[in-house]
Every structure is written in structure tokens, then in C-alpha cells.
Design goal:
Structural class: alpha/beta
Number of helices: 14
Radius of gyration: 17 Å
CATH class: Alpha Beta
Distance between the termini: 32 Å
Order of helices and strands: HEHEHHHEEHEHEHEHEHHHHH
Number of domains: 1
CATH superfamily: P-loop containing nucleotide triphosphate hydrolases
Helix content: 40-55%
Number of strands: 8
Length: about 280
């Protein structure tokens, strides 16, 4: 498995994970991929919930091939990848295939090599990992330069977010961990939750957790999911879309996509907004 220093010299890979299901992680990844692609960047998305497909459903796509075909050895990742909104490329997961829920070491190594190869023609790879603390989360975390833990204001989600952070830290104390808080009332609630988790990780793990941002609770997200369209496309002026735009800018900064990726590239309205803080 390539070490972290080697990965930094290649196309950045970010894995999104969550200790608890239902916090909106896949929806965040899908919308971030669209926003980053709108900026003219070549974005690759791996639906890493290998046995429970989500991203293709959110995009309203019905893939002919899935990552299951790659893991079975019948097709390459390039064969499996399909075009999504705004020119992004998606490697879809299978649906209802329990055997794909946990990669064996050979499959993990093969996936790492192939994902690196296909990722070289892209500028950023986003992995939507499965919810929970299973071994498949660890496998996909090992492929990444950083892991973003997605949580929500629910106490159970916060407890599970810390549990996931603890497991990932124990596996690799040098791993970069970040927090994204979904379904907040406002920015202040996201910052409060980050403060709580950051304090706990400092106390018990000896290191903090970075804060990448929040997404506000918005009925527009529910409507967009029902329409199988990204909320940033269907309701670009919604509060959730504005939150996602700010988050996309932070991701671009973390992935060092360059100064050409600006707020104006994804949203002229966001570019005009006063006092936008990208990195904190």
C-alpha cells in the first residue's frame, strides 16, 4: 500500500465517512462533486458503499456496470466509470450485494492501484464511504489523504462520529481527520458541535479534528432527493446550496486545486457575498 507521502504527490483523494447512517453523507458528496466539476475541474467519485448504491440514485442514473464487476475481475475501473452531471465521472456501487461490503486484502490492494491509475487523469477523487465503523470504512480510509467525518446535531450521531474518529486514529495516528456537520440550524450550531468534538478528541486522542464546514437543514434538499437531482442544480439559491458552495471552496483549498478555482467559478452570487471565510 502506498504511504501517505507518496499519495500527497499524486491526485488528492478524500474519503467521506460517518459513524451513523442517515446523516446525509452521500448527498453531501454528490453535491460537492457537482460544484467542483462546475468549476471546470475533472472530478472522480467512487461510491464506496460497495454493496448499497447511493450516488447513482441521487443523480438519477442507472448504470450498466458497477464496482462489483471490477472486483469480480471482469472489467476495469475505467470500464465501470460513467459520466455524471457537469462531466464528473462516477464509479457506481452495486446494490444489495452483501459480498461487497468488506474488501479482502487482495481486493483492497487492487482497488488502490486501479483507483490511483484512473485518478491520474482527474484533479480530485472523492470517495463516499459506507456509514458505520466496519472494516470497509478502514479500507477506504487507507486510500485517502484525509478523511472527512460527516455528522449531524443529533447526540447519537455525535457519539458515533467520535467513535469513528477514535478507530481511524488508532489505526493511523498520523491520519488527517476533518469534520463536516450536516442539517444544522445555522453556522453557529456547526461550530458548536465542532468545538465539542474537537475538545473530546484533544482530550482522549491527543489531537484535534479540523473543521471543514456545515450544511444547513433545508427542505430543498428533501425535494431534490425526491427528484433525483443535486440540490445545487435544482435549487441553486437555497440555503443548503449556499452552504455547500462554501464547503466546496474549503475542499478545493484542502485539495490545493489552485487559485483558478474561485467562488465565481461555481456561483457568481457566492463570489459577491461579503465576508466569506474559506479556511478557518
Amino acid at each position: 500500500m502506498p504511504d501517505r507521502a507518496q499519495r500527497r504527490r499524486r491526485t488528492p483523494v478524500l474519503t467521506f465517512a460517518s459513524g451513523k447512517g442517515g446523516v446525509g453523507k452521500s448527498n453531501i458528496v454528490a453535491n460537492l462533486a457537482c460544484l467542483l466539476s462546475k468549476g471546470g475541474r475533472r472530478i472522480l467519485v467512487l461510491d464506496g458503499d460497495l454493496g448499497l448504491a447511493n450516488i447513482d440514485v441521487l443523480f438519477g442514473i442507472s448504470p450498466r456496470l458497477t464496482i462489483g464487476h471490477f472486483l469480480e475481475g471482469t472489467h476495469s475501473l475505467d470500464d465501470v466509470a460513467i459520466e455524471g452531471p457537469h462531466g464528473l465521472r462516477l464509479i457506481p456501487a452495486a446494490s444489495g450485494v452483501a459480498a461487497l461490503a468488506l474488501l479482502d486484502p487482495a481486493q483492497e490492494a487492487r482497488l488502490a492501484v486501479s483507483l490511483h491509475a484512473i485518478g491520474e487523469s482527474h484533479e480530485l477523487t472523492l470517495i463516499d464511504g459506507p456509514a458505520g465503523i466496519s472494516g470497509s470504512v478502514s479500507s477506504l480510509a487507507r486510500l485517502a489523504d484525509a478523511v472527512a467525518i460527516v455528522t449531524s446535531p443529533e447526540p447519537t450521531a455525535m457519539v458515533d462520529a467520535y467513535a469513528l474518529a477514535k478507530i481511524l486514529h488508532r489505526e493511523d495516528p498520523g491520519r488527517r481527520l476533518a469534520l463536516v456537520v450536516n442539517n444544522t440550524r445555522d453556522a453557529a450550531e456547526g461550530e458548536r458541535i465542532h468545538h465539542q468534538l474537537d475538545r473530546i478528541t484533544h482530550r482522549f486522542l491527543g489531537k484535534g479534528i479540523s473543521y471543514w464546514g456545515h450544511v444547513v437543514q433545508d427542505d430543498a434538499v428533501v425535494s431534490a432527493v425526491q427528484e433525483q437531482r443535486p440540490v445545487v442544480d435544482l435549487y441553486p439559491q437555497s440555503r443548503a446550496s449556499r452552504s455547500l458552495e462554501a464547503l466546496a471552496l474549503r475542499i478545493a483549498a484542502e485539495a490545493r486545486l489552485g487559485s483558478a478555482f474561485t467562488a465565481a467559478a461555481i456561483s457568481p452570487a457566492l463570489h459577491a457575498a461579503p465576508g466569506l471565510e474559506i479556511v478557518h
